[in-house]
Amino acid sequence: xxxxxxxxxxxxxxxxxxxxxxxxxxxxxxxxxxxxxxxxxxxxxxxxxxxxxxxxxxxxxxxxxxxxxxxxxxxxxxxxxxxxxxxxxxxxxxxxxxxxxxxxxxxxxxxxxxxxxxxxxxxxxxxxxxxxxxxxxxxxxxxxxxxxxxxxxxxxxxxxxxxxxxxxxxxxxxxxxxxxxxxxxxxxxxxxxxxxxxxxxxxxxxxxxxxxxxxxxxxxxxxxxxxxxxxxxxxxxxxxxxxxxxxxxxxxxxxxxxxxxxxxxxxxxxxxxxxxxxxxxxxxxxxxxxxxxxxxxxxxxxxxxxxxxxxxxxxxxxxxxxxxxxxxxxxxxxxxxxxxxxxxxxxxxxxxxxxxxxxxxxxxxxxxxxxxxxx
Length: 375
Fold this sequence. Notes:
alpha/beta
């Protein structure tokens, strides 16, 4: 019986582990019907110290799938009002435009540059349209009644603001701007909860490694998605430092990153602590693979973020593409590639066609992660 512990860090999302458990369960059932893995998933278990996990089992393997939750932190920094969005807008200009790092993004990843400007264009464009409509109504109505014309302007701006907020939330515009601001603050250590949070995550991984040092047919996989990959860098560094002090063998420790956006922090001018963590993580020597896709507009597709950040390490990640176009039918893929939100989460979804990338194969079965990837 092959045993493994998977520790999953979600992206910048205010939704709790329940959403990600439902996503995992739904797609695991779909993948079962296609790949015939014979996997069964248990309900979520909540331990006495509020750790959440479920079990994924087959005849040959058992996986303890741990949710390393940080949605409470996300909700604390989540923008909710128009004032919050305006503050995000100003902070974005300061951190990415006026700082000059926009040049780096232009050279390394134009897709991310466009994604960063998307909320700005939406915000300014929407209000320009709103003011044009309001002014047009004012010019038309003022000849009849000036007071009614002024009232119409105020009503138009109020309705326009409501519409801008609704559409912005509906299409995740403000979610994107909030992510950029969060990452800029992360780089300078302004997210006070992160040190304790990543320490807690690393301690849970170390506990599993310690308890299974002599277990054969066993592995620990740290899996992180989206902004969660940034936290994962800090977690890997902490695990490596403790393991070195304790002479703990990390041969069973693996890293799987999906849709990473690490340069949102590593490209910042003032991120010395994070860059040191990147160097520690990149010199550990564990098996580390990084999957990104060109259709995922919210990631830095196939970018060597160590080289792009000016860092040289002994064991950088293995940069790979899931090649989604070979995992779905042409009709489905055509729909997916124009849905950037779905494309960003596609790494966690069931495929329609068996291929080299299969998330549920990575987290189950009798072979190790490196064996499956290198096959």
